[in-house]
Amino acid sequence: MAITIQVKDLQQGYGKTIVLKDINLTVHNGEILGLIGPSGAGKTTLVSTIMGMLTPQKGTVTVLGQQMPNRKLLAKIGYMAQTDALYSTLTARENLKFFGAMQGISNDALKKQIPYAAGIVNLNSDLDKYVKDYSGGMKRRLSLAIALVSDPELLILDEPTVGIDPELRQQIWAELRKIAKQGKTILLTTHVMEDAEQSDQLMMIRNGVAIAQGTPDQLIKDFQVDTVEAVFLKAGRQQDENSRND
Ligand SMILES: Nc1ncnc2c1ncn2[C@@H]1O[C@H](COP(=O)(O)OP(=O)(O)OP(=O)(O)O)[C@@H](O)[C@H]1O
Known about the structure:
It is a single chain. Helix 3 crosses helix 4 (about 135-150). It is built from eight helices and ten strands. Helices cover about 40% and strands about 25% of the residues. The structure holds adenosine-5'-triphosphate (ATP).
């Protein structure tokens, strides 16, 4: 299986502050990687580095065979940020057209891609409403549609299920699976254990360090617990014990 994301010995931070240490990660084509960890652990910092928005302090990040940062690759990456960056005085369709055009998608392609992307998040019947009249969950769904509109090779979703009800969450997961089956790679950050459980691979980050990595089933087995949440709690306790013994 080809590799989409390769992170080697990454150290990352802001100025003199180190946020991430010794991060190693390989994500293959068609895989869904869930990045979980408490607030401030460094998830967004890692995602920003993978996208090439930040240059590594140490180590390397390669995406689709190219070392990051690399502006040319941005067209192949669909990104949904943690906070919705939408134009509220435009309709959802106009937002999709605008962001699609920004990614270099032709008008003809957009005619096909907009209904496809809006269909995944159940927004086709609300496309001509103004975004200022959207609920928080609808805005989140529109942001996800914008990330999907270019049919990207790599989809990066920062907390995609915040404000989304359980039924739609299941629906979105079914679509993410379909997208992954087509050979697209998905990286998502989450605080939601149901999302973590559904990921193919997990990386748990705490205090800037990867404290557990593997498939949900393998982690549950290795940590001798019953749930992904319990893996996370146990790995966190082990990290605290190790730092006390240092
Ligand atoms: N632009 C920045 N300049 C300086 N420090 C930053 C910057 N962005 C993030 N940080 C710091 O880096 C650390 C990791 O932040 P990051 O946003 O990566 O965490 P996170 O795991 O994504 O958290 P959350 O789940 O709350 O989004 C935090 O201590 C944060 O204060």
